[in-house]
Amino acid sequence: MVTGGSRGIGLEIARTLVARGDRVCVTGRDAERLAAAVAELGPHAMGVAGKAHDPEHQAEVVERVLAAWGRLDHLVNNAGSNPAFGPLTDVEPALLAKVFEINVLSAFGFARRAWSAWQHQHGGTVVNIASVAGLGASPFLGAYGVSKAALVNLTEQLAHELAPLVRVNAVAPAVVKTRFASALYEGNEERLAAGYPLGRLGVPSDVAGVVAFLSSPAAAWLTGQTLVVDGGVGLTAGTG
Predict the structure, then answer these.
(1) Residues 174 and 134 sit within 8 Å (Cβ to Cβ)
(2) Which residues are listed as membrane-spanning (predicted)?
(3) Checking DSSP bridges between strand 226-229 and strand 166-173, what pairing results, if any?
(4) What domains lie within the chain, and their CATH numbers?
(5) CB–CB of 124/74 below 8 Å?
(6) pTM for the full model?
(7) Three-state SS for 202?
(8) Which residue among 17, 22, 182, 192 has the highest number of C-beta atoms inside a 10 angstrom radius?
């Protein structure tokens, strides 16, 4: 199951998992876009439209996955929102609460339901899509960064509580070229990419490959980790 899977990083994750032989349920708010994604993914995919932070939607998704396939081995919490661009001190508390509701509570809700419905008996994996913004201060992504820092801590807490049956890890990308992040690089991509040792910004497949690894037997002794996927930009932090 991949939340926020109708476009961008989420859709690329779904493509990668379908390609390796998984049956994948994707979720998203836009029913029409979600239907197009499912049509592209093929017969081993299904979609359930709704808001990721809605408990009724969470329950419906888990129920439909189990009804269709009888199991729920891997959960990828990719759904996220960043309606507040700028310093944290400029963000109204109600808006910060909404960011947390979507970026943190939705991941907690889906993980809790996956655990109680299947994984507490059969095991599995959870992968949370965090961000490098959650690993340090950001002058422009204050609310988003604080929520992603909470998601990193949630990853560690769930990894501790759900072991040994369920492995819980996170991925923290830097700037990835999607519509969601377009405000960060459009008109400025060449200059921004010059600060990355690998010479480019990320693309969705960079994240999808790491998610596939974390949800595979190759990562069988990894839990509670946040894998930074940043093209090396963290290596140059603070060097001018």
Answers:
(1) no
(2) none
(3) parallel
(4) 8-229 (3.40.50.720)
(5) yes
(6) 0.94
(7) strand
(8) 17
